[in-house]
Amino acid sequence: MRRRTFITLLGGGAAAWPLATRAQQPAMPVVGYLSSRSPDDTTHLLAGFRQGLADGGFIEHQNVTIEYRWALGQYDHLPALATELTRLPLVVVVSTGGEPAALAAKAATSTIPIVFGTGTDPVKAGQVASYNRPGSNATGINFQTADMEAKRLGLLHELMPQAKHIVVLYNPKFAAAEGQLQDVREAARTLGLQISALHASTDDEINAAFRTMVQQQTAALILAADPFFDTRRSQLVVLAAYNRLPAIYQFREYAAAGGLMSYGIDAIDAYRQIGIYAARILKGARPVDLPVMQPTKFELVIILKTAKILVLDVTDKLLARADEVIE
User: Fold this and answer.
1) 1 within a domain of the structure (yes/no)
2) Spatial distance between the Cα atoms of 70 and 73, rounded to a whole number of angstroms
3) Of 84, 113, 144, 323, which has the maximum CB count within 10 A?
4) Are residues 108 and 151 in the same domain?
């Protein structure tokens, strides 16, 4: 709660005090918010971020201002958006929506503190020197979404052990794409599965990829973790349902939209942690003193209604492993 100062006004100059008082009030600190995604598909995540700020004592429009910039899944727009933000009188830049936004923020400023949310190893990407001592103007959280592709393949195989031909749909414009494909292929060899890779970085290419999957009689789909796909969540879930294609996704939001299953972090809580770090920097903390966080829990969500529509038998063993089963 902000401290209130009560002033007793005496004499004929009283009427001038309110205007003078307002003029002397310091401007609210400004947070720059850079995202690879869109405001429409991140409403729930923004709520988590704002809650983290509030936990640290900062409420938007009351004692902090947030300037938003959205790339809408178009990674090539991020550098200009990041530069535009850093020209403002920011106290901290928050970059969300994976590695593309984090790298754009890092390239745009070496002085303004950055709190990132990324799905890949920030040390390998050159964003920080180490997890415990970031050693630069950036810190944040590694969601590890891009590192879970092999695990998702294993879960899909456990649900559909008879499926031998599985497609991984990836975005070639995503920096982590090659690593994702390598992880899936190595896991497929271990499981004795045949993996085909299809790419998409536009709406039309997504539609074309699904037409190819239908023609090839694909048994199941792994959607590679990628912020671009997150901005097209409804399109992807609807296409999978229309073509009766079992699929596994990275976030619960896909399952909540009707997707078959998801495996990944609690994204809302992760964004809350980003908000908490941003609040600490607003209070004077330095990124170098804030270790990069990593998730300790991953959630398996299964939608039984979708499984029944696809005529899939979800075993009791797999159901017991699920963190959430939605009827």
Assistant:
1) no
2) 8
3) 113
4) no
